[in-house]
Amino acid sequence: MDPKIKLLFLDEHAAEGAARYGASQKELTFIGGFQNFIYSYNRDELKYILRFTPSTLRTSEGLVAEIDWIRYLSESGISVSEPIFSINGKYFELIQGNKIDYYVTSFKHAPGRKIGYPECLGNSILYEECGRITGRLHELAKLYNPTNAKRHTWEFNEYLLRAEDYLPSELQPILIALDELKVQLASMPVNADNFGLIHGDINVGNFTIDEARGLTLFDFDECQYSWYVEDIAIQLYYLLYVFGEDSKFERKVQYELFIKHFELGYTEDGQRMPDNWKDLLKLFLRLREIIVVIGMHRSWDLSKPDDWTRDFLQDSRMRITKGISLIDEL
């Protein structure tokens, strides 16, 4: 979260947003959030999520499109964290602030539990579940025809649009690498089989798992029109970078295990993997690494980074400027 936006979000905004969903501020438990202010609360013995989105990051049209997409997936049998109505019968409410406004949305709390590190590593059952739900989501995306509003396409991703605002001047080489990568992406073929509405941020922080229902996806805040391979590369990225540059053997094992079992899940019901998906992973791993670095500079105080953050940024900058991905050297 941009530190300036953090300072503008006040208790009174949280209180007003809670009231729109029949709760009080004292019932809210702050969870966090990278782009939004996220709380949990209970109502009628059920648990819900309350999300405040700065109007500087999203439009009302974008929220309509996000909610329509989630509802479509839910109605089609995908396990997702569904939006609920406010007391005014709306799927989101506008809370006015002094300098910026906030859109507040509430969702059912996802059932099951989260899987974090290191439990998610070397977990073939999890990778099949990830492949299974991603494959079903992509097949449904091919049939999806929104009537109210449409989400943005990949090139209008906020991180890409505002990279120059967020990165310091000494990281100009990353901006150059990003421009070159965008040219490569813009030249890629686009058709109904390889390009559509994706989740855009599937990682262990954005789903829960239980034995009865498998995965439940939430946080569709980054959904956008892009190549389906990007949805796969994002999941792989967050399962590889944790090993660091001195653990290439472990990364190779993890990569091969993920690829094998993710594909098994993805194709289980007859879905085909996207064309050339293994070759294209490198391209989208590079894109994700750039987005992560931009996001860190936007949301974190990096004036005195800890050792892990410093080493991570050094490694990332090296790969980005050399035009290589996490799997190029495996």
Note the overall shape: globular
Task: Tell me the Rg in angstroms.
Answer: 20 Å
Helix content, binned percent: 40-55%
Number of H- or I-type helical stretches: 11
Strand content: 5-15%
Extract low-pLDDT stretches.
Answer: none
Largest sheet: 5 strands, antiparallel
Structural class: alpha+beta
Average pLDDT, rounded to a whole number, is 93
Distance between the termini: 33 Å
Provide the succession of SSEs: HHEEEHEEHHHHEEEEHHHH
What does this structure look like?
The chain is of the alpha+beta class. The protein has eleven helices and nine strands. The longest helix is centred in the last third of the chain and has 23 residues, at 277-299. It is globular and about 55 Å long. The mean pLDDT is 93.
Could you outline the blueprint of secondary structure elements for this entry?
Layout: H1 3-8, H2 11-19, E1 29-32, E2 37-43, E3 46-54, H3 60-75, E4 93-95, E5 102-108, H4 124-143, H5 158-161, H6 163-166, H7 172-186, E6 195-198, E7 207-210, E8 214-217, E9 224-227, H8 228-240, H9 248-266, H10 277-299, H11 307-322
Antiparallel strand pairs: 1-2, 2-3, 3-5, 4-5, 6-9, 7-8
Helix pairs in contact: 4-8, 4-9, 7-10, 7-11, 8-10, 10-11
In short, what is this structure?
With 330 residues, the protein is an alpha+beta fold. It has helices at 3-8, 11-19, 60-75, 124-143, 158-161, 163-166, 172-186, 228-240, 248-266, 277-299, 307-322, and strands at residues 29-32, 37-43, 46-54, 93-95, 102-108, 195-198, 207-210, 214-217, 224-227.
